[in-house]
Design a protein that fits this description.
The protein is an all-alpha fold. The chain has helices spanning 33-47, 54-72, 77-100, 118-138, 144-149, 154-159, 161-182.
Amino acid sequence: MHAYGVTDTWTPQSTQPSAGGDESRMGSLAPTYEEFLWLHNAIAMPLMTRTETLALAYKHLKDANALHVQAVGRPSSEALYNIACCFSLAAQAHVRQCHRGTSFALSGLPPFSVTAPPATIIDSRLDLSITAMEDALRAGYTDAANMRVDPDLQCTRELRPGHFASLLSKALGREANAETICVP
């Protein structure tokens, strides 16, 4: 298990089929890449657009990553990148609420504490965002240009600039290496 709760095992019971009755997509004996794409793109990604559904997006991204491991044999750099985005978005929402002076709770997303002070939760989620991003880079994520401008990572970029710059540098190095390898 990774620091932010991602496991490498997925079971069909981990998620529910879409409301459209698409049961045929889930539950095959051998998970497929198409099932990963469906869970990641059609289920998890739309949930990242609202703060209230970030925890559910996180759960489905964890499941998608585990499904990817089973189907392809390695973690999904995209799912891990989007897990980093979930943590950054949650930290950003928490910061906004603190500035407004209102209470804020986002259950279902680590760290799981109802008693921790807001600053501790924000710091923990930023640390988890960095950890997930490191895992995404290890899994092959190379889109440094996206990392620079992705609004989902704004809080991590701004509040962890040193760590983020290091991650960006690694992504740039991998991006350059990938371009070198692909040149005919």
